[in-house]
Design brief:
Elements lengths: L1 H10 L4 H12 L34 E4 L2 E4 L10 H9 L12 H14 L10 H16 L6 H15 L8 H17 L3 H21 L11 H20 L6 H21 L20 H10 L12 E4 L4 E5 L3 E6 L19 E5 L2 E4 L11 H7 L7 E3 L7 E2 L3 E2 L9 E4 L4 E7 L10 E9 L2 E9 L5 E6 L5 E4 L6 E4 L5 E7 L1 E10 L7 E10 L3 E8 L1
Antiparallel strand pairs: 1-2, 3-4, 4-5, 5-6, 6-7, 8-15, 9-10, 11-12, 12-13, 13-14, 14-21, 15-20, 16-17, 17-18, 18-21, 19-20
Length: 542
């Protein structure tokens, strides 16, 4: 019965097209016509190759994905992790740093892919892999790599397969990638088939971009990692509109340019002073481009880079984050929904969590993401206990389950932000624990001064046990003081901070942090076991 309830509370949010598309995909078979091999002329502005990621090639025919190095012997080797194989099929290395030095390797890869991946067999013919690979091939061709006719024929067949498998059952970043690929192919190729791809791709993007990119510039899936990926996509699309200016309306191109500016600003707010993303929802480093590289790409395209905000407080209202930055601290607060109701696949149960950097060093971190799939570790990393927030009666604030599912989910209140001369206060609550028998609500207040952070948690209703978790970056040294119950934190800068709790015991426990896929690093967390309904966590410079 519990599984049925979870399934009901998961499915009730989906759009009708997500159901109908799932059915139609099972009932229809992909068909092919003669491949398109004639190409359009480019405008006077040629494609400017720009690498936003380091090469994944490791010499001797080996590639590194997800911190795993392996060879390309079988494109669909069942002994390899499926996500590793997906990355292989994307062909990202064609456009990664130093690609000009790997021309022979890339020629061989394209040839072997075509030989070893017959039509509609294997991972490479799934729509998402087609989407990323086809864009990478076209960008590589436009960068000066003259395509062979058999390459163009294969690419045309791949795009034909993509158009018949658009991922309306998933929507979100998958449909966005599908549409981007259709638009690239529709501009690159010439003919009636290409015109259909162009029309369909542009039509989908005209609908999806206003929905997926919020008014504050954030991507609606609310994960900083995917935001940077979509930002790179938008930069590619904008450049495509310059290269094929007679194919993409000028007004559309200008809209994309303005939107990129907002997205760059959002990414700047949501990154840490170390220049990498914060870990809310499915986020990790090493997957998406860093903001600094995206800014350089924007400069190449003459897109104006927004000036860094001088405000101490930035409320990203539509996406649901509050960022406080002073000369010492950067505090990023999650007062957001888990994501779009109909596509929360990359959501974690992290409502009212936060991350904090001090003196440019990460101090409090959410636990990150190192695996996808259906395993226990994937589920654990999505749970509330792996984030800097409160667990009530061992339950998650939102019912994350399976690899990418969410049933009943927490909805936050509108945050209240108060600024005074020396402190900034943010207050917010959520209703995720109202599903418990005791009808529990969690109210949290952050109060930040230059040398002190107060986090006040109020848990109302009937409950047996509550605990607040505070996960520390591995570089933070932790010392426990037995005589007064305080904990001393030492930062890499040498600064020391005292931690004390009011209304709770503090325990220092071993746990793990996952800043990259395939990576697990030992770290510490502070656990505050509630003795009363209100608990104060006080962090103060010694």
């Amino acid at each position: 019965m519990n599984k049925l309830l979870k399934l009901y509370h998961t499915l009730k949010y989906l759009k009708p097209i997500q159901f109908s598309n799932r059915i139609s995909r099972r009932l229809t078979k992909v068909t092919f016509i003669k491949p398109e091999v004639t190409l359009n002329e480019v405008s006077t502005t040629g494609w400017q190759a720009f690498s936003v990621l380091n090469s994944c090639y490791q010499d001797n025919g080996q590639f590194e994905f997800l911190n795993v190095v392996d060879t390309v012997s079988d494109w669909n080797d069942t002994a390899k992790a499926k996500l590793w194989l997906y990355n292989l099929h994307y062909f990202d290395d064609l456009n990664q740093s130093g690609w000009q030095d790997r021309t022979e390797i890339h020629h061989s890869l394209v040839n072997t892919w075509i030989k070893q991946n017959p039509k509609m067999i294997g991972n490479g013919w799934e729509p998402y892999t087609i989407s990323l690979r086809s864009v990478n091939w076209i960008k590589w061709f436009l960068s000066g790599n003259e395509p062979k006719e058999e390459w163009l024929a294969s690419l045309s067949l791949q795009v034909q397969a993509l158009e018949q498998q658009l991922e309306y059952h998933l929507l979100g970043n998958h449909l966005f990638a599908n549409a981007k690929a259709l638009l690239f192919a529709g501009c690159y190729f010439k003919g009636e088939l290409a015109d259909e791809w162009l029309k369909r791709g542009l039509g989908i993007l005209n609908e999806e971009i206003p929905e997926q990119i919020l008014a504050d510039g954030g991507n609606f899936e609310l994960t900083p990692m995917y935001h940077n990926t979509i930002l790179a996509d938008m930069l590619d699309l904008y450049q495509l509109s310059l290269v094929y200016s007679y194919k993409i309306p000028k007004a559309t191109s200008q809209d994309w340019r303005e939107l990129i500016g907002k997205m760059l600003s959002w990414a700047e707010h949501m990154q840490h002073p170390d220049g990498d993303v914060s870990f809310f929802n499915d986020s990790a480093t090493g997957i998406a481009p860093k903001l600094a590289d995206l800014q350089r790409y924007a400069e190449v395209l003459n897109v104006t880079i927004p000036a860094n905000s001088k405000n101490q407080v930035t409320a990203l209202k539509e996406s649901g984050y509050v960022v406080i930055k002073d000369q010492v601290n950067k505090l990023i607060i999650d007062v957001a929904k888990v994501g779009p109701d109909y596509i929360p696949g990359h959501a974690h149960a992290d409502t009212l969590s936060f991350e904090l950097s001090i003196d440019g060093h990460r101090v409090f971190v959410n636990s990150g993401t190192s695996v996808y799939g259906l395993g226990e570790e994937r589920l654990r990393q999505r749970k509330t206990e792996t984030h800097n927030t409160v667990v009530v009666d061992g339950m998650d604030s939102s019912e994350v389950w399976s690899g990418f599912r969410v049933a009943r989910r927490a909805y936050p209140s509108k945050p209240i932000i108060t600024e005074s001369e020396y402190t900034i206060t943010v207050e917010c609550s959520h209703d995720g624990y109202m599903r418990l028998p005791g009808k529990v609500t969690h109210l949290r207040k952050w109060q930040l001064a230059q040398d002190e952070l107060l986090v006040c948690d109020q848990v109302s209703g009937v409950f047996n046990h509550a605990e607040a978790n505070y996960h520390l970056h591995p570089n933070i040294q932790v010392e426990s003081s037995n005589h007064d119950g305080q904990v001393i934190l030492q930062l890499p800068s040498g600064a020391q901070y005292n931690v004390r709790a009011e209304g709770a015991d503090i325990k220092v426990l071993d746990t793990t942090w996952h800043p990259e896929f395939g990576l697990s690093i030992a770290n510490k967390k502070l656990v505050l076991n509630f003795k009363q309904n209100e608990v104060n966590f006080v962090l103060k410079r010694a």
